[in-house]
Amino acid sequence: MKTERQNVSEDVVVVTERNKRAKTSNNGGEPIPFDLTVEICSRLPAKSISRFRCVLKLWGSILRLPYFTELFLTRSLARPQLLFACHKDNHVFVFSSPQPQNIDDNNASSLLAANYHMKIPFYASSFERCSSVRGLVFFGDERYSNGKEHKVSVICNPSTRQSLTLPKLKTRKRIGVRSYFGFEPIEKQYKVLSMTWGIYGTRDMDSEEHQVLTLGTRKPSWRMIECWIPHSLYHTYNNVCINGVLYYPAVNTSSKGFIIVSFDFRSEEFRFVEDTDTSISSYYGPHLINYNGKLGSLGSGGFGGIGASCTSITLRVLEDAEKHEWSEHIYVLPAWWKNIFGGECTVLSVVGVTRTNEIVLSLRFPSTPFYVFYYNTERNAIRRVEIQGQEAFKDHSVYTFLDHVENVNMKLLEGF
Q: Cα-Cα-Cα-Cα dihedral of 60, 65, 70, 75, to 10°?
């Protein structure tokens, strides 16, 4: 295995060979050492990297090296952000803000500003098909051309402002398509899993053809894979990717039992976990989350979703996938809970759980001002964070994501 020093040395050779006549200097003096250039730039915001790539040819080469983009991403993991995807006027607008740190004061409020990144066309009537994975954002889309409907998936990188429409799925079944996005950490590959169903208009949709596409390859294309678990999908778009494994709820069409299907993006194999919580099929049912590296589901313990009217939050954690064993934790909410959100009928979206085990919630159709809520289960306290810069999206769909990182690798979304 190559050491970091070997990787740096090889990168220096590559840059030198490509840019023999270029010089990086400080006021006409000695060239700035390669190591120092990389170290300084790895601590800058992604917007600065985009600008510096245009300053000098040598800098552009350095800041596009795999070693640098991986170092920048590693540094970015230590400063996670909130990401906001806002749907309005057939476009998705992408913003981010720093992820607030834990506050000890009960019922505390704080203020953050959202930074605008980009917008992309998005014509689907439903805005549920989106997910954020390691700096990239995935959108499942339905577009119309010449009177015909086309199922299209789009991936964008807010840090580089790139967007990419994935190639057309190779399928005989054009009635329904469901796609999921994930990252495989061993080979460091982004992949998309897509499947089709052939019966339209039913609540459960039998998955049939299963295909995988890998980003960042020279000639990416869809590959058919086998799925030995006959299962039906839900209309609800509920999924999470944890350490290279995708999880989504389904029904085993053989046993008719509720299951959580897992798909390993590295081995490209399917497995499943039995789930006795039947409310997972509800639109406002429990939401799958990453709970400290384990699969978790978060809900109100019923079919009503987490909102102002619920009295407790139920967290279920998968402790043993082989034995199908789940643990359950019930958190009784304080009496003043319903006064925070401004209405008995308010239903909150589950954003996730922070590294300090705070449950993060937000409004799907926010009013002004726009808040993100942090519930501390240990102290039974809630704090709200006002996000400035979202005023134009009042009463429009807004999805909020935890732990967004800046990824300046431009090769990932180069055209097919």
A: -40
